Amino acid sequence: MSETSSSTEYNFKLNDCLLGGQMMFVAFGALVLVPILTGLNPNVALFTAGLGTLIFQVITKGKVPVFLASSFAFIAPIQYGVKTWGIPGTMCGLAAAGVIYILFSFIIKFGGARFLHKILPPVVTGPVIMVIGLVLAPVAVGMANGSIGDGRITGNTAMILSMTTLVATVIAAIFGKGFMKLVPILIGIVVGYIASLLMGVIDFTPVQNAAWLSVPDFVAPEWNLNAVLYIIPVAIAPAIEHFGDVLAIGSVTGKDYLEDPGVDKTMLGDGIATTVAACLGGPPNTTYSEVTGAVTLTKAFNPAIMTWAAICAILLAFVGKVGAILQTIPSPVMGGIMILLFGMITAIGLNTLARSKTDITEPRNLVIISLVLVCGIGGMKLTAGNFAMEKIGLAGVLGLVLNLILPKGKKQA
Questions:
Q1: pLDDT (tens digit per residue) in 314-335
Q2: Domains in the chain, number
Q3: CA 214, CA 220: separation in Å to the nearest integer?
Q4: How far apart are CA 273 and CA 288, in angstroms?
Q5: Using omega within 30 degrees of 0 as the cis cutoff, is the peptide bond preceding 407 cis?
Q6: pTM here?
Q7: Residue 90 — pLDDT band, cuts 50, 70, 90?
Q8: Is 381 within 8 Å of 394 (Cβ atoms)?
Q9: CA 291, 300, 191 angle in degrees (round to 5)?
C-alpha cells in the first residue's frame, strides 16, 4: 500500500486509479440494484452516483473518503411513486427529499445535532425504518414466485431461481471472507444470473439492440405535490442514519469528521447530491457502508481515491450495453434479493431501537411504535381533495407529530 493511498489527506494521483475502480466495483452491485428494482435507468444511477460523490467532495473539501450512491431506504417509495405518478413525478418528490437533508444541515449548523435527535429520536426513526422494510414485503415475495414482473418466468422455475439467489447471498454474507463479505448481494445476483443462463430463461434482445456508447436516458422532474408529501417523510430515517455513516468512516480513519469538516457539511453534501440526482432521473444518494468496509480492508484512506471511483462510475454510465445487460436479469432473481434486503432494512430498524435502549413497554413509546407500525404497514390512508398520504409517508409524519405532542414520562424527562 502506497503512502498516498494510506494517507488521510486528499492527494489526487494517477497511480490510485485502480484503487478507485475497485471501490466503484464494491459499490456497483448495490448501486445498480436500486434502479433495477424501481424501474429507473441503471446508467443514470451510475452517472448520478459519480456526480454526487464529486459534489460531496467539493462541499466537504475532499476530507471524507466516502462514496455516494443509490439509497436502499427509498426503494419502496420509488416503486410506489413510479407506479402512481410516473418517473418524472417521483423525481420531484426525491428532489424534495434532498432539500430536507439540506434543511437538516442548517438545523445542525445553528441548533446542533442534539436538536435533530430531540425531534427525531430512535423511538420514531426505528419504527419508520421497519415500515420501509416491511411495506413492500408482498412485492418481494411476488417477484420471487413470478406473480409480479414481466410474467415470463413463473411456478417452480421462478422459485428455483429466487431461492438459489437468496441462498447464495446468505452464504456469502455469513461465510464470506475478505472481499467476498463486502459484496454478498453482487455474488447472489451473479449466481442467480448463471442459474438463469443454465435454465435458458434470459432474453438477450435488449443487449443486442443497445449501443456500446450512448448518453444515459436522463429524466427531468415534474412538479407533483402528492409525490413531495409522500416521499419527504422517508428522508427522516436516512438523514439520521447519515450520522452513523460519518462516525463509522471516522472510526476507520481515526479522524473526527463530525468536527472537521462537520456533520452539517456532510449532510449538506448528501442533500445537494440527492437533489441533483433526482433532477437527472437518478435515485437518492447516500454514503455506502460497503465502500467503508473496503476502506477498512485496504487501508486506502486517501479521499482522492473516491474521486477516481466517481470518475469510473461516470465513464461506465456511457456504456449502453451495461444497462442493457442489467435489464436482462430475471425478476425472480431480484425477488430473491428483495426478500433478504427488505428483511435486513427491518432488522436495522429493530437495531436502532435496541441500541438506543428504548423502553418499548413505557406507555408513550408503546403508543408511538404501535401506531407507526400498524398505520404504515396496514395501509392507512389520509386524503383531502387531491392530497393523499399513506404507508411510509404517513408513518414518518405520524411518528414525528406523536413525539412532539405526547408528554414524556418521568424517566424520559
A1: 999 999 998 889 888 898 998 8
A2: 1
A3: 18
A4: 14
A5: no
A6: 0.81
A7: very high
A8: yes
A9: 40
